[in-house]
Write a structure and sequence with these properties.
The chain is mainly alpha-helical and 219 residues long. The chain has one domain. The protein is 86% helix and 0% strand. The termini are far apart.
């Protein structure tokens, strides 16, 4: 892309946002602020789940296997190198498997696993709320715009250009619904993707706990 054209594109984007704010009013402003907040939050969640990728969690499973093959040193190295806080919980479970009651160990590991997963599920509700409310807010803006358009038509009854004024008011009112749907659709996709990532991570963590407890009962 020609670098000279980039400032022009940026200015065009600024002007476009300004036009949306002018035509859509407070409702569009709220929707745009919500989208900026949601995109920032989504980016942070994507980075968080990227850290807890399937291969990274599988390394913890590998460490469990090495531990119970008698290769404690190699297992500890893997757990210490892991960027996941769950690695410390896995190490705790492996070290305590012969010392603690199996039921107590199970409860403690499940408590720690829930705490780990809680960090990944946090704020997903806010993303869900954005894609639920964005169309409703857009519809609200449309209704308010239609009310304003018909009120203006009633005030100027008998004046020329009533039809064109009404048409202009209607399309401006519908703009907020379009903005709301444009925001809701990508956020719905992002939320579904993050929920799927959380489900996979939850299954992996549950499997790790099961493996630790299974080995802990192995003579």
């Amino acid at each position: 892309m020609d670098p000279i054209s980039e400032p022009g594109m940026f200015m065009g984007l600024i002007l476009g946002v300004g036009t949306l704010l002018k035509l859509g009013g407070a409702v569009v402003a709220i929707l745009l602020l919500a989208s900026i907040f949601g995109l920032t939050l989504s980016a942070r969640k994507f980075m968080q789940f990227r850290e807890a990728s399937v291969p990274e969690v599988s390394r913890l499973d590998e460490a469990i296997g090495l531990w119970h093959q008698g290769e404690d040193r190699n297992a500890r190295e893997i757990l210490l190198e892991s960027p996941l806080s769950l690695a410390e919980d896995v190490r705790f479970g492996l070290e305590k498997h012969g010392e603690m009651d199996s039921d107590l160990l199970h409860d403690e590991l499940m408590r720690r696993a829930s705490g780990f997963l809680r960090g990944y599920s946090r704020n997903l509700r806010l993303i869900e709320l954005i894609y639920y409310l964005a169309p409703v807010m857009g519809l609200l803006g449309t209704v308010l715009g239609m009310i304003d358009a018909f009120r203006g038509l009633a005030v100027s009854a008998g004046a020329s250009g009533e039809s064109s004024a009404l048409a202009s008011g209607i399309w401006e009112a519908l703009l907020t619904t379009a903005v709301g749907l444009s925001i809701a659709i990508p956020f719905a996709v992002m939320h579904a993707f993050l929920e799927a990532k959380l489900e996979v991570l939850s299954e992996q963590v549950s499997d790790l706990v099961t493996r630790i407890l299974t080995f802990s009962n192995t003579p």
